[in-house]
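For the sake of transparency, this paper describes our internal protein records without simplification. The tokens are whole numbers drawn from a learned vocabulary of local backbone shapes. One such record is reproduced below, unchanged from the form in which we store it.

. . .
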Amino acid sequence: MNRDSRLSSILHVLLHMAHSDVPLTSDELAAFLGTHSAFVRRELAGLRELGYVRSEKGHGGGWTVSCDLSRVSLRDIFDALGTPQIFAIGDRNDAPTCLVEQAVNSVLGDALRDAEALLMERLGQVMVADLAAEFTRRMNTIPHCSNRNLHDEP
């Protein structure tokens, strides 16, 4: 099963950007994720259009946070990414003629809608600043830890 990790990835780079005193390039952000810089640019472009981040070209340029993260929820970021599919579970057939399959689809559909609503509610309650505070708390427990060497720590 392929998982859509864009939300996790973008939250990851947002926290690096929030804790950096200087703009971070797409290459630097991609290195944090172990991915290609084109992925970072593509995904952050949507956030830039909504005013969450900004980018500057040229020497000393890069990506920075351009909003108050205490006013941006995980749901906001999820929506900015185009509301990725949450569950890989789905109906075997969207319009079954079999009464058994109709019953299965009905019950599973209700359960999935309820689960999705609960998740969306929770994502709306957690602010990106809450993640940044948790990150800072964890970072402060590791001697000599900085934003740049986080991925080298145990």
In short: The chain has a mean pLDDT of 89.
